[in-house]
UniProtKB/TrEMBL annotation, chain B:
Region described as Disordered: spans on this chain: 32-56
Alphabetical UniProt keywords: Signal
Signal sequence interval, chain numbering: 1-23
Alphabetized InterPro entries for the sequence: Bact_solute-bd_prot1 (IPR050490), DUF3502 (IPR022627), SBP (IPR006059)
Protein name: ABC transporter substrate-binding protein
Pfam families linked: DUF3502, SBP_bac_1
Gene3D superfamilies: Periplasmic binding protein-like II
Species the sequence originates in: Candidatus Caccousia stercoris
Domain DUF3502: 465-530
Length: 317, 533
């Protein structure tokens, strides 16, 4: 391709583009709808980023509003909780990425090793089901477990003669509760991703390995995992790009907005929500969002750079 | 693998952010027909003197878009609006394109619609939904100071001056406030049947400390009967009722309060002028009182969650599983509640009514700064506030279909069935303007308007009434403080934690997040306000 254009460029410069365009016209046409949608909904709204640096006035609009420099970003850093927010957001997400990777791969391999395929499908559906529940629904399910008066856990504790726990005001318990529900809810989805790429591994490898007398464990270690590696890397890089976005539903709905839990549950998204629901400042909301995406962008590029160093074939770009 | 990369690339792009604020789209299906175009007023159309009745000559019909928040949206809304349009077409040459949204959705949708520059003429605004001050600050609403006396003269006279002063921002009026009870009065509604059965004298209750004994009796006597009655709920709103203060920022929870001399409280901090109410002795006392209640089991096991589920609370109250709860009271509420709860309901006030700036912002109708028909819109708002037919129609629906008139001033809405069958039944009508030009439901006492007037006359007007705080210079601090308060206040104010231990932590967090800066800014603006008076 490169050679062709170079060649064409040196001889007939003008025809080159037209010709390539003509040749690829059907393909270009096919890409057009997606391209239009992309420009309309992904690129055009980016002009709204200007809002992060402005004091928004409805009548003056996005472009006419007055500039205020970086003032809209201050509220993210000037709070005494800035450290807690950042720590919670990044640590929880890092933990989720790690657990999700390990558990999803383990489950995908386990399910694909099941000989009874119908049963494998059944389990897969069961694991997938929570993914479709809204966090609001999950929060009420959790409430039925943790409620101080009527919760299942406190009833159980009472049954064993133990003191009930005030779940919604003890931050120390929540890292575990949040992690459990997050994994429980999302694991099915990631498992399916890995199962789909497992089915792509050619059976020849396994047959050859069995002939050579490899055990199941050896097969997994030397064939399955290396074949899954590109998928693992791609999903992880993408997840790292979103490390500064916390799942609002998880951190807001599940703890039922309980104040005493903020030390353990406050993340950037909930902080911004709580901070701006009174004042409704569009500029500050845009600033928070821009800050998150810049961090995300830097992390994706960084993670990709690292991967390209170690294993160029698996890098995203 | 190629497929995979494509998917990965799509995902990556999806992850890129878009900060553009997309407006909540609200497909309207209630566009009233503009057919006809012109309507001549039958009686006066040809003979009337055009100078004295400028609006009754044959004219183009102006269509006004009115965004309204009310809960829940009645099924027969369209019918009622059709009837309303018949009337307003003749009377002022206006047709309403009524876009009504239920309260919880309105809160989310309307700010988006305004921010996105959607066209409208009139919209409902307040300090609890689609914030009035915030959107005045964003130039969303029209300055109607000049137009009001001209196009809504009757309303301008009918609403007391203190209300107009309270809704002024930098000397200009941007909305017509709902004139109902002036100010707010905190207290407890209680099951009076139960109070009588337990031999309680509720008239003796004037403070929270008095109430401890009541709760004790309720708890003991109900347990003796084998029932588990929750003594009191609604504590998340109770603190300002226990020790009323003037909220200078307009948000009572923000730490910038002013003392109201009539209440004789806050002696330890009042000399500071503007003070942080959480540092006061009153706050400590309040928290300790409710901590006692909590530990004695008068609040149920989980007051924070109990408070948030009002449907459950109302249910418990009606069934006698809840004795009382804190509310901001309006005249007639107890009577109307006893009609719906199936037992007697009484009210024990904890304070005299207090009228402060924010009290006037419970509900307003504002004009869009882009409105092309501000005159007509004001004429219509004038009808909502002064015309008996319009008031009753929009509040109770069509006579014979949704209500039957009882005497001069009351309506019966049961229509031979139950209220749930009624296609147009609203518990409150003040969001449409004012209850004073609407007939009253028969569950209200007959002298209800007198009760309102008594209430309004007894209201204490706060020292800095008319002062509105501009949050812009301290937005950063307000954002951080809002979070801090949400973290500490609910558990302190429901007695879920030990105040002696927790209040110092709370105060420390407030100071770390700019409470001082907020108070200083309030002082500066307040001085400027007082100097300009």
């Amino acid at each position: 391709m490169k050679q062709a254009t170079m060649h064409a460029g040196s001889v007939r410069k003008k025809d080159g583009f037209v010709k390539t365009f003509k040749k690829n016209f059907p393909l270009t046409l096919m890409a057009l709808p997606a391209l239009v949608v992309m420009i309309l909904f992904r690129y055009l709204p980016m002009s709204g980023l200007l809002l992060a640096f402005k004091r928004f006035s409805v009548r003056k609009g996005i472009f006419g509003s007055e500039w205020v420099g970086l003032k809209n970003f201050e509220f993210l850093f000037q709070t005494s909780d800035a450290w807690i927010i950042t720590r919670n957001t990044i640590c929880y997400n890092a933990l989720f990425i790690f657990l999700d990777l390990v558990l999803a791969v383990a489950m995908a391999i386990g399910l694909s090793e099941l000989l009874n395929k119908r049963r494998a499908k059944l389990y897969q559906t069961i694991f997938m089901a929570p993914y479709f529940l809204s966090w609001v629904v999950v929060s009420f399910m959790a409430f039925s477990l943790f409620s101080i008066d009527d919760g299942l856990f406190n009833h159980l504790l009472a049954y064993f003669g133990m003191e009930g726990v005030d779940w919604y005001s003890e931050p120390s318990k929540w890292p575990f509760i949040l992690t459990f529900f997050q994994i429980w809810k999302t694991i099915g989805y990631s498992t399916v991703m890995y199962i789909s790429s497992l089915t792509g591994i050619s059976n020849d490898y396994y047959e050859a390995a069995i002939i050579d007398g490899a055990t199941k464990w050896q097969q997994i270690k030397s064939i399955t995992l290396p074949c899954l590696r590109p998928m693992m890397i791609v999903l992880t890089i993408l997840a790292i790009g979103r490390i500064f976005y916390a799942d609002f539903g998880l951190f807001f709905q599940l703890p039922r907005d309980s104040g005493p839990l903020y030390q353990a549950t406050q993340v950037i998204d909930t902080y911004v929500y709580r901070a701006l629901k009174e004042t409704g400042n569009v500029g500050m909301a845009a600033a928070a969002s821009l800050y998150q995406s810049i961090v995300g962008f830097v992390l994706v590029v960084g993670a990709n750079l690292v991967v390209r160093r170690i294993e160029p074939d698996s890098a995203l770009f | 693998m190629k497929n995979l990369y494509k998917r990965a690339a799509a995902l990556a792009l999806a992850a890129t952010m878009t900060a553009g604020v997309l407006a909540g789209c609200n497909g309207s299906n209630t566009t009233a027909s503009t057919g006809g175009g012109e309507v001549s007023t039958p009686a006066s159309g040809d003979a009337a003197d055009p100078a004295s009745q400028p609006s009754s000559e044959p004219q183009e019909i102006t269509q006004l878009i009115w965004y309204m928040s009310i809960n829940p949206v009645a099924a027969d809304t369209e019918k009622v609006i059709e009837k309303l349009n018949e009337y307003t077409r003749e009377k002022i040459g206006v047709e309403i394109d009524y876009k009504v949204i239920a309260n919880p959705d309105y809160k989310e949708k309307m700010p988006n619609l305004i921010n996105a520059g959607e066209y409208f003429d009139i919209c409902f605004t307040s300090n609890w939904t689609t914030d009035y001050l915030q959107f005045v600050g964003k130039d969303a609403f029209m300055d109607i100071t000049e137009l009001l006396p001209q196009y809504a003269q009757d309303t301008y006279k009918f609403i007391p001056e203190a209300m107009w002063n309270a809704v002024k921002v930098n000397g200009s009026i941007y909305g017509v406030p709902s004139y109902k009870e002036m100010g707010w009065q905190g207290g407890l509604v209680y099951n009076s049947d139960m109070a009588e059965a337990y031999g309680l004298d509720m008239t003796a209750v004037t403070s929270l400390e008095d109430y401890t004994d009541v709760l004790k009796t309720v708890s003991e006597k109900s347990k003796a009967e084998g029932k588990d009655v929750v003594g009191v709920s609604g504590l998340t709103n109770a603190w300002p009722m226990a020790a009323p203060y003037e909220s200078l920022t307009g948000t009572p929870s923000l730490p910038a309060a002013g003392a109201v001399p009539e209440f004789k409280n806050f002696a330890d901090v009042a000399d500071q002028g503007v003070f942080n109410q959480y540092t006061s002795e009153e706050y400590m006392n309040y928290c300790q009182t409710v901590r006692g209640w909590n530990q004695s089991g008068y609040l149920g096991g989980d007051p924070v969650n109990y408070d948030s589920d009002t449907a459950n609370r109302d249910n418990d109250f009606n069934n006698g599983a809840l004795f009382s709860y804190f509310i901001q009271y309006a005249p007639g509420t107890a009577e109307s509640m006893s009609a719906s709860s199936g037992h007697g309901v009484g009210f024990a006030p904890l304070m005299q009514p207090l009228f402060e700036t924010r009290s006037a912002m419970g509900g307003l109708l504002a004009l869009s700064s882009a409105s092309e028909h501000p005159e007509k819109a004001l004429e219509f708002i004038n009808l909502l506030n002064t015309d008996e037919y319009v008031g009753t129609l929009i509040r109770h629906g069509i006579e014979g279909e949704h209500y039957t008139a009882v005497g001069e001033n009351q309506v019966d809405k049961t229509m031979g069935g139950t209220l749930t069958d009624n296609g147009y039944d609203y518990t409150y009508g003040w969001q449409f303007g004012t209850p004073f030009n609407q007939k009253w439901d028969i569950s209200y006492p007959e002298n209800i308007e007198e009760l309102f007037m008594d209430y309004n006359e007894s209201a204490i007007i706060s020292p800095n009434n008319g002062f509105t705080f501009d949050t812009v210079p301290v937005e950063t601090q307000v954002a951080a403080l809002t979070n801090t308060i949400a973290e500490y206040a609910p558990s302190l104010e429901t007695g879920s934690v030990d105040p002696a231990d927790y209040i110092p932590k709370f105060l420390e967090a407030l100071n770390a997040n700019g409470a001082e800066a907020l108070i200083t800014e309030v002082k500066t603006q307040l001085d400027a306000f007082n100097a300009s008076k």
